[in-house]
Amino acid sequence: ILSTACEARGTDATGISYNTETNLSVFKRPLPAHFMRYRMPKTNAVMGHTRLSTQGDEKFNYNNHPFAGKVGNTNFALAHNGVLHNDLILRRTEGLPKTNIETDSYVAVQLIEKKGKLDFESLKYMAEQLEGSFTITVMDREDNMYFVKGDNPMCIYHFKDKGIYIYASTEEILQKALKKIPY
């Protein structure tokens, strides 16, 4: 329901990341959210993304969000909302590895990987290197969710009585989705 409401932000591709008992899974397709069919096992955290393509052809699924990353023994998934202007410069000046992924967003994964850990310092380092508009979400194997808010929109609701956080780009999207959820 939430992913379909998020189509207001893009319909070129849709993806989610979630943890199973054994690993962090990323499922994405070059389809609008309303065409997606999810078969997730029981999980405590889900991170999603609907894409409006700005760089990198969505038909090549590796260009779509979320992106998988790894630092040490920590697997993570990252999604980006916005447009980065200095991704090519960062790839060169930071000596980031070449990849077939063409999106500006993937440089954020590479910057975290370069630091060799996923923590507040590596997220700060990544965010301070980026030029452009962004809000970045990162989820790790332990169900930790990190939000790096630049100047792109983001809205988070916390339902303390249910122990649930839910987020989207805008409050309007959250309200639309919540009206359809049977809680």
Write the layout of secondary structure elements.
Layout: H1 2-5, E1 13-19, E2 24-29, E3 46-51, E4 67-71, E5 74-84, H2 87-93, H3 106-115, H4 120-129, E6 132-140, E7 145-149, E8 155-159, E9 164-168, H5 171-178
Antiparallel strand pairs: 1-2, 1-3, 4-5, 5-6, 6-7, 8-9
Helix pairs in contact: 3-4
Question: Would you mind describing this structure in some detail?
Answer:
With 183 residues, the chain is an alpha+beta fold. The chain contains five helices and nine strands; from the N terminus they run αβββββαααββββα. It has helices spanning 2-5, 87-93, 106-115, 120-129, 171-178, and strands at 13-19, 24-29, 46-51, 67-71, 74-84, 132-140, 145-149, 155-159, 164-168. The strands form three sheets. A four-stranded antiparallel β-sheet has the order 4-5-6-7.
Descriptors for this entry?
183 residues, alpha+beta, 4-stranded antiparallel β-sheet, 5 helices, 9 strands, 32% strand
The 3D shape can be described as globular
Strand order in the largest sheet:
4-5-6-7
How far apart the termini lie comes to 13 Å
Rg, please? Answer: 16 Å
Number of helices: 5
| H/E series | HEEEEEHHHEEEEH
- Given as residue ranges, the uncertain stretches (5+ residues, pLDDT < 50) are none
Portion in strands: 25-35%
Task: Please provide the count of β strands.
Answer: 9
Could you say which structural class the secondary elements and strand pairing correspond to?
A: alpha+beta
Question: Helicity, in percent?
Answer: 10-25%
Looking at how many chains there are and whether they match, the oligomeric state comes to: single chain
Largest sheet: 4 strands, antiparallel
Average pLDDT confidence is: 93
